[in-house]
Amino acid sequence: MASGVGSISGPGAVDDKRLHANGLDAITFPTRVAAKLHDSSIPFEEYLHYAKITRQEEERLYGPGSDFTQGSGPTMTFIKEKILRKRVEHRRESVPQPRLSISAQGEGQIVRHESDSGNEKSAIENKKFEPMTISDEEWVQASRAARTATWGAVFYLITTDILGPFSTGYAFSQMGLGPGVTLFTVFGALAGYSGYQLWRMYLQLDSDRYPMKGYGDIAFRVYGPWFRHTCNLLQSFQFFLNVALIILSSGQSISQLSKGQLCFIVCVVVCMLAGCIIGQIRTLQRFGWLASWAVFLNLFIIFATMGVMAHSPPNYKLYAAANPDFDINNPAPIQVSGSAPPGLDIVDNVNGLMNAVFSFGGATLFVELLAEMRRPMDFWKGLLCADLLIYACYMVYGIYTYCMQGQYAYNVSYQGISPYGWQTACNIIGLITGLIAAVLYGNIGIKVLYNNLGRDLLNFPLLESKTGKWIWVAFVPIYWTLAWVVTQSVPQINTWIVLVGAGCILQFTYTFPPFMMLGFKCQRDAMLPGETFDPATGTVRHLDSGLKRWWRGFKKELFWNLFDLIFYLGSFVTMVLGLYAAFTSMVDAYKSSVNLSAWRLLPLRFEPLPLGSIRPVGWLGQQMDLMANGLPGHLHEFYRPVKDAPWLGGDQEYSWLNEAWPYSYNALVPLAWTTNNARLKHHVLRVTEWVIDHQHADGWLGPEESLSRRNFWARYPLFLGFMQLVEAEPELGETMVLPAMHRFVRLMYSMLQDHHQGYVWKPGDLFDEQWGRSRAADMVLVLQWLYEKYPMGNEKIIHYCMVQMYEMAYDWSYWFHEDHFLKGDLDTYPQDLTNSLFPYVHGVNAGQGLKWGGVMRRLVQDDVLLNTTRNGVNWTFRYHGTPSGAIIGDEREAGLSPVRGTELCSVVESIFSLSYLYHAVGDRDFADKTELAAYNALPVMLMPHWWAHQYVAQTNQPVSHRLDNPPFWNVGPMGQTFGTEPNYPCCTVNMQGYSKFVPAMYVKDGEDGLVHALLGPAHVSTTLQKRNQIRIRCDTNYPFSNYLNYEIKARSAFRFSFRVPAWALPDASIVMVDRGKKHPLAPDNSTGLHTMVIPAGRTRVEVSFSTHLRVESRANDTISVYYGALLYALPLAGDYTASRPANYPGTEAPPEANDWSILPRDYWNVAVDVTALKFYEYPNRYDAWLPHPIWHEERPPVSISALACQIDWELRDGYAPNPPLAGRRNCTGRAFPVELRPYGSAKLHMAELPTVNLRPGSPDLWRPGPGV
User: Fold this and answer.
1) Torsion angle of C-alpha atoms 195, 199, 205, 211, degrees rounded to 10
2) CA dist., res. 201 & res. 231, Å (int)
3) Are 587 and 662 found together in one domain?
4) Helix (H, G, I), strand (E, B), or coil: what is residue 996?
5) 707/174 Cα distance (integer angstroms)
């Protein structure tokens, strides 16, 4: 026989003397009972009998007075030998070989017959002794082979399992210091008491003869098989899900540390492989060394973050991300409250309470720890030390964090510190400790399955046997792989953590221990003097039974039992409430997505309404009619790239991308159904039928025949048009459009499988990949809609396409990152750099890329993309935006110069992206920016009758004519003139105008809410839950006035909300219902929504926004002036000269289609005195009908007066250069009054105005020379 079981106990553990059979023989020790561990016929008293003998053995071998010595562990041995250079006494045996006790040896094999179970005489007569020879390996396995752990190892294991102080600061911020200290103390004490109860029951029920392996064994010996199976099921579920969730969260940490450079699936697989390797540690004694490092690493994080908190402010950026209204530049002082903090509701307080409850949860694995201890009597030492350390950490760290960071304390404290380097370091250490905890959970979880499934049902050998060890080696990777599969396939798995907390952690720590202790005590204390177990017969004779017996046992320790009963009932009620909350939150999470397949998309914050549900009225309805009767509604009749497009059998196309016709189709579908224009509807249906009838046999849509020329990009706007058409005409969609879409998606699936054919360029392909990869969000958006609304059994194929497009798309989260985003004028950067970033800085790509994070977040379910999206939008408009809400990009982004141009394509794509983001995320800022672009940047680029447009517009544009030396990056000489095709044709065919804006004006909020999201005159008709038909008409001249009148008709009550813009003053604004009392507005901080309940029947709601003039500083020491949603500019009267379209002479184009040049008649080179600005409204501001067309320079009923003077500022190369800087703006003449008008109506305009001081005595004033 090998000397002991050193290979099992591990270094540092002295061999168990009972593992040696030296000098023993089969005659002296005839047999060992091979009793089934979970034999229901074994009486309760028998467990008590052998447990008492085993404890006595342990005391004799390892208790006080024994010669047992504990050797140094590997860590201390290394330190002493290698660092301190001390001689280390290695473990040795100094204990005489003991005689084997009866508890391990047994009296014989007792055969129980069911018919004799109640007959003592029969039991005696049937007693059989069957001596057998016991081999060394059998004896090692049968005795205490796994019992090697010390109380020191238990201390580290308990601390690793329970210690989680990094949310305590946040918990205190939700409860306050007083309640926080009280609740943490109470629940810490209760958790310690539960651990004590489990320890006491284990000592009195475990023996070498009937060893306990897990929590379920106590349950079995107290209440029987039903409770054992319950515990084992919950325990297995908890540990397995813990492993799965830690794999997922660790993968997210690795992904964040790699800044998105590593594929997320790779990150998760790395964590799974790490678990497969480390999980091969089988015994908890060996694992204790690893757990000790986890404890010390967590303590390092605690001390490090405490030091950082003392010398740096909280992470205001993180707080601002969760609180959109937070002013990061002017944060409120840190506040600490002794009682419940003000401003928080009961939900916040309960969140803090539950944090305290779960902070001490960890008793789930206590029995497993006891089962591997050499001397379980010492468990109390490890438990007490661990509980005291954990409590001290919670108190010190939680109070310190709250006092240092106050209301800014974050749920993961080391992410709430501001230095990025320390955040990263702590994230890495937290990743390591999390994986260690996951391996611990996996270790116990596998043992629970092995002992209860493998041993009982599959007859697996003992885990300590050679075969058992090999099974362990094989089963560990299977367990971790299954956990990984669950993380990738179970939808909304993150929400299951609340179920684990309430259904498992709370149960094993607070509910089950007092429940089992009650049953244990009632049975133990009910025993009468004559009811002891007879080891000779293996029987117990009870003198009574039933409730009388249980009541006798309960009365023995009445007060303790009453306390345990109250403890149990209180925990049970808490469990019920926790499960209710858990299931409610899970149901809400699952109900938020229509599709219930394994792959689930995050829900949109608001649900768009089908095309045709919303109709424009008032001035907006007139604008849409002008679109239908103007260039957008007539392109298909004469414009060659549309009329004779290859898509329709023609041969006219401006680009090998074949994008002209899909662009126009995407714009025309919503225009036709929003205006209900029969002519346009007929045309759309005709060309749709033609294109689908000519779909290729393999499913390809489009004119491309050669595989090498097929690229997905032009299909994006086509599918956007298809999506809208299906919503407007569901029957047509189901019979014709949707089958065609699915045929194409199946082809796309096979192409993406073939090295991403048609998406990623490879040698031999004849297309430019950058357009499809940079604009991928447009196609993924449609695929998400198809996946949720009309999957038609193709969920896996659609999901695969979405994932592949996401994986191979140009990553806008890379561009929208602090380290990569170029915040200056791109002309000042090296050309090689800007060329390498061209897909991100192309003006139209930039407009479409704004929604990338919002779209992809729904797919990958990573809220990091929320910050990506917010950063992208904010930085794009802050560093490359116009005051009118557009992106400065004359093909490529520039800086902030008012000389540079913004493309009409970019404007309409920005409007669509921003409105989508408000639907997807719900941030009010996205809706405000949508209106800013729609009511300013869009109309200024179109002639009032919608028959001519600009390719690019300048913020300061005093003249619109041919520029032989244009100041643009890549725009021709006619680019800023108005015409049919003033430059590249893309802005002619992609004339979405208000066609995408109007269908986004109203949205659903849940099942019973309707929201006016984008303000303006419109009528909506839709149906909410329970067939609640709703009709709302909003009559308003918004944005020219800030008064809205809603006439509402509803079948039953519903929630109605309207968005309050950020520029409105809520306290001074009012809402009034049925001409009743006026109420101030109370908008939601995030969405900006003011919500009210509208009763059934007819209701009138009136809203009036109060605001004031806003002056915004711009580049070159200039200003822009706003009132409400409108930007105001200096309008310049001009001389208009018309000519026939350059490429459509004579009658090739309708007579209304002309090209224009405009020369100014007024002074343009002026500066204004900002102190003299004053808002004026005209008498017709609130008329039922405004002058038509409203975007004419003399039609809007509002203006702002100003005092101005001319300054020395001349045209250069036919355009206005950047204005002179401050200090060089002396007036060249007398001051005079000017009138600023809405920017969208002024085709010639100055919107970034230099300022001067025109008050008496100012040096800026003009001073006439001698003789004047």
Assistant:
1) 100
2) 16
3) no
4) coil
5) 60
- Of the pLDDT bands very low, low, confident and very high (cuts 50, 70, 90), residue 30 is very low
1003: in domain: no
Closest by Cα among 1192, 1158, 1137, 1164 to 898? 1164
SS3 1097: strand
Instruction: Mark whether 804 and 817 lie in a shared domain.
Output: no
b/e burial code for range 777-805 (CB count within 10 A of at least 16 → b): bbbbbbbbbbbbebbeebbebbbbbbbbb
- Angle, helices 738-753 vs 795-808, to 10°: value is 50
Q: Which residue type occupies 421? A: G
pLDDT top residue among 873 and 402: 873
Model's pTM, two decimal places?
0.65
Could you check whether the bond before residue 1189 is cis, i.e. omega within 30 degrees of 0? yes
Please compute the mean of the pLDDT values over residues 522-537 and round it to a whole number.
Answer: 83
pLDDT for the residue numbered 327: 66
> Measuring CA to CA, which residue among 444, 479, 481 is closest to residue 463?
444
Query: SS3 letters for 89-145?
Result: CCCCCCCCCCCCCHHHHCCCCCCCCHHHCCCHHHHHHCCCCCCCCCCHHHHHHHCCC
Cα gap 312→314, rounded to integer Å: 7
* Crossing angle for the helix pair 177-205 and 215-223, to the nearest 10 degrees: 70
CATH number assigned to the domain comprising residue 842: 1.50.10.20
Q: With contact defined as beta carbons under 8 Å apart, do 935 and 911 qualify?
A: no
Reference 1003, options 1053, 1043, 1052, 1056; nearest CA is 1056
Give the domain extent around 1193. 1116-1250
d(CA 163, CA 291): 11
Residue 694's H or E segment, with its range, is: none
Residues 827 and 894 sit within 8 Å (Cβ to Cβ):
yes
Spell out the residues 6+ positions from residue 331 whose beta carbon is closer than 8 angstroms to its own.
313, 316, 319, 408
In a domain, 102, yes or no: no
The dihedral over CA atoms of 141, 144, 145, 148, expressed in degrees to the nearest 10, equals 170
Q: Angle at which helices 618-629 and 660-675 pack, to 10 degrees?
A: 140
d(C-alpha 1002, C-alpha 1009), whole Å: 11
**Quick one: CA dihedral 118, 120, 126, 130, positive or negative?**
positive
Contact 1004, 1024 (CB under 8 A): yes
Angle of CA points 618, 620, 621, to nearest 5°: 70
Are residues 937 and 843 part of one domain?
A: yes
How many angstroms separate the Cα of 610 from the Cα of each of 727, 909, 1000? Answer: 5, 20, 10
Per-residue model confidence (pLDDT) at position 322: 61
pLDDT by residue (tens digit) across 1081-1109?
Answer: 999 999 999 999 999 999 999 999 999 99
1026 in the Ramachandran plot: left (φ > 0), alpha (ψ -120 to 50) or beta? left
Please give the backbone phi and psi of residue 381, each rounded to the nearest 5 degrees, phi first.
-65, -50
pLDDT value of residue 86: 59
- Residue 35 tokens read as 């009793």
| Beta-carbon count within 10 A of 222 CB | 23
Q: Are residues 1157 and 1139 in the same domain?
A: yes
d(C-alpha 35, C-alpha 42), whole Å = 9
Query: With DSSP H G I counted as helix, E B as strand and the rest as coil, what are the percentages for the chain, rounded to 5?
Result: 50, 10, 35
**Same domain, yes or no: 1022 and 1088:** yes
Per-position DSSP letters for 304-341, written without gaps between them: HHHHHHHHS-B-HHHHHHH-TT--TTSPPPP---SSSP
Helices (H) and strands (E) in the chain, counts: 45, 29
At 461, list the tokens. 């050998």
User: Distance (Å, rounded) from C-alpha 270 to C-alpha 248?
Assistant: 11
Tokens of 584: 């409610």
For residue 1039, cis peptide bond before it (omega within 30 degrees of 0): yes
Residue 1054 corresponds to which tokens in the numbers above? 């519903």
Helix ranges (DSSP H) in 406-465 = 420-449, 455-457
